[in-house]
Amino acid sequence: MDLLEQVQATVLKFSMFTPGDKVLVGVSGGADSAALFHLLFRLREELKLTLFACHLNHMFRGEEARTDAEWVAALAESLDVPAVIESFNVPAYMTRYGLSAQVAARQVRYDFYQRTADRLGAVKVALGHHADDQAETVLINLIRGAGLAGLRGIPPVRDNFYVRPLIEARRARIESYCSTYGLSYRQDSSNLKPVYTRNRIRLELMPLLEEKYNPTMVDSLNRLTGIIREEDEYMDAVAAGILVKATIQARPGFVRLSLEHLAKTPAVLKRRMLRIIYRELAGSHNVPDLRHIENALGLMESRPLPGRLEWPAGITLLQRYGELEIVKGGLWAEIPYYCYVLNIPGSTCIPETGATIEVQMKNISQIADPKTLHPGEALLDYNKLPGPVKVRRRKDGDLFWPLGFKGTIKLKKFFIDRKIPRELRGSVPLVVSGDDEIVWVAGMRPGEKWKITEETEKCLHLKLITKHCK
After folding, report:
1. Which tens digit of pLDDT belongs to each residue from 58-101?
2. In whole angstroms, what is the distance from residue 366 CA to residue 193 CA?
3. CA-angle at 354, arms to 352 and 356, nearest 5°
4. Closest CA to 392 of 325, 445, 342
5. What is this structure's pTM?
6. 140 inside domain
7. Integer Cα distance of 296 and 51 in angstroms
8. Which residues contact 255 (CB under 8 A, 6 or more apart)?
9. What residues form DSSP beta bridges with 441?
10. Which of 187, 249, 418, 469 lies 20 to 30 Å from 120, alpha-carbon distance?
11. 173 three-state secondary structure
12. Structural domain containing residue 457
């Protein structure tokens, strides 16, 4: 099977094209993209494709990069295929946004692909990644600790938009094809220097592995990605089904989940759900590091205390009272003021936050060691409490005398000292006495004046329930 036949088989295997597709081919000028462009040109009539070429000068390599762009334009002209050639100052972009060279180049390049495809009406973007790239990517992700999702490697088809017809072909075979057809491809000099992780893996680690451990390492890693991809896609489908059921609200750039619904969901599926959400908000070509996923899992388990976590790509996660909100751009709905009389004994729902306060009346003899209480519970001396006891949202100027403190402090300072983010403070229910003194900052600390003492006879046992109420 020659390379043309292999590409035909790969295209068919992964259903990459539909007759009539307009296809934008990304051409860097290297052997892989030059061969891809030439192969698709040879297959265009059989597959009924309309081709366009595109090239982006990242402005990293001065005259060398300008020569690359001229070479691509000449190749496209020789094949009578329209080409879009653009330049973008990626060094300035990476400095402005504090990105690495590779991350900045990737963001700018994929934005260029999307814009150009939209302008031309192209429904597919064909890229030149091959089997050696796949093996290198798997090793990079393994070193990064990206988890099983990273071991899927580069997808042959992503979002039914990006396609990689060379993904099963070896680099040596591609270079041989270029030689056979006289494609004097360009060589990016930066690829020959072991300065980036991928370069070091290609130039140093992979040759060592093939020489000392497994001469067919690239093929072995590609087989591994194929197996993992099949199993991973199945597990992703399971996780997506659970995600749909756990979603309370969703709109572009925002999702709110019920943590109660996810309480018994295995961590392995929660990780997948979080990855699905991340790709949806950050863009499908972005993959979160495992540490970001693990931090989010920890946030989901931090109840009843609210918490906040920052992800890359401007994504923020807020956990508050039975719900996890994930938003891109940091726009949060302010919880309106509320005030309800507590049912004593009984349950009081707070629709604004989704939380519930449960209250039981107990004799002191029924109470075990108060030090064993869960953070979401509190004991108050009932006889010291003027009624009616209420639960409300915080107000400007609120004061609080926390248990164990020498006196009253501003509630704002109490929150700041405990690193409660400003946007979360309104979601913390406050239990107040009949004269509006704060007796319990729910889920955090009761007030000093109403603590249990040796003289206490009756007490209120309060519990913050984070299950979403209606």
Report:
1. 998 888 889 999 999 999 999 999 999 999 999 999 998 888 88
2. 73
3. 110
4. 342
5. 0.61
6. no
7. 43
8. 247, 249, 277, 280, 281, 325, 326, 327
9. 430, 445
10. 187
11. helix
12. 339-465
